[in-house]
């Protein structure tokens, strides 16, 4: 890996935030969790312009690791500053196992995620992807794969080192190399 401005992307539930936290710890650089900025109290999305400004303020340093799939809302703001993109591209069945387990644990423990937000049991059983992170992960998995396959070969992002991690073993190997 060439740089220290890293964007970690992947389907919800893939483990991108956990991976980004580990990279932050290993390299001793700030971790920017885009979900924590975007999801305000009561799961209210931060208005687009405010979100862009808040993220841009955090990207001014020379080293950081940011995780999240906000290319649509942020455009190329993160990737323009990044030197590396890590795509945590796990198979759908692995993502689904992880996200169901994570969501159940969060709902049981009532652990606060960001800004007072918690997983709600009723959302877990909703079929609406806007309410259920499980359904969101299912419906966006294939779309994310298509999008990142296209973006990694887009000449606009030729300055980026693009690393595709397809398993937890790949992620562990990547982290071991950072040490």
Our measurement of the CA-to-CA distance between the termini, rounded to an integer number of angstroms, reads: 12 Å
CATH homology superfamily name: P-loop containing nucleotide triphosphate hydrolases
What is the makeup of the main sheet?
5 strands, parallel
Query: What is the CATH topology assignment?
Result: Rossmann fold
Shape: globular
Q: Please give the order of strands in the largest beta sheet.
A: 2-3-1-4-5
User: Helical amount among residues, as a percent range?
Assistant: 40-55%
Number of helical stretches of at least 4 residues: 9
Radius of gyration: 16 Å
CATH class: Alpha Beta
Strand residue content: 5-15%
Write the layout of secondary structure elements.
Elements lengths: L4 E5 L6 H12 L3 E3 H5 L9 H11 L5 E4 L3 H4 L2 H5 L2 E5 L3 H18 L11 H4 L8 H20 L8 E5 L2 H11 L1
Parallel strand pairs: 1-3, 1-4, 2-3, 4-5
Helix pairs in contact: 6-8
Q: What report would you give on this structure?
A:
It is a single chain. This protein has a five-stranded parallel sheet. It is globular, with a radius of gyration of 16 Å. It has helices at about 15-25, 35-40, 50-60, 70-75, 75-80, 90-110, 120-125, 135-150, 170-179; strands at about 5-10, 30-35, 65, 85-90, 160-165. The chain has a single domain (about 5-179), classed as Rossmann fold (3-Layer(aba) Sandwich), CATH 3.40.50. It is an alpha/beta fold and about 180 residues long.
């Amino acid at each position: 890996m060439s740089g220290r401005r890293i964007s970690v992307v992947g389907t919800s539930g893939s483990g991108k935030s956990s991976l980004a936290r580990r990279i932050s710890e290993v390299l001793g650089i700030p971790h920017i969790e885009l979900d924590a900025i975007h999801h305000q109290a009561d799961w209210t999305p931060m208005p687009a312009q405010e979100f862009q400004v808040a993220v841009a303020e955090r990207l001014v340093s020379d080293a950081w690791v940011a995780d999240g799939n906000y290319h649509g809302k942020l455009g190329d703001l993160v990737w323009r500053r990044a030197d590396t993109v890590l795509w945590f591209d796990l198979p759908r069945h692995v993502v689904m196992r992880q996200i169901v387990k994570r969501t159940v644990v969060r709902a049981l423990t009532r652990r606060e995620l960001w800004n007072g937000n918690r997983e709600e049991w009723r959302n877990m059983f909703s079929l609406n992807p806007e309410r259920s992170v499980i359904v969101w992960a299912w419906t966006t998995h294939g779309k994310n794969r298509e999008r990142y396959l296209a973006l990694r070969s887009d000449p606009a992002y030729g300055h980026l080192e693009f690393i595709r991690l397809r398993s937890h073993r790949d992620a562990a190997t990547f982290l071991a190399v950072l040490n």
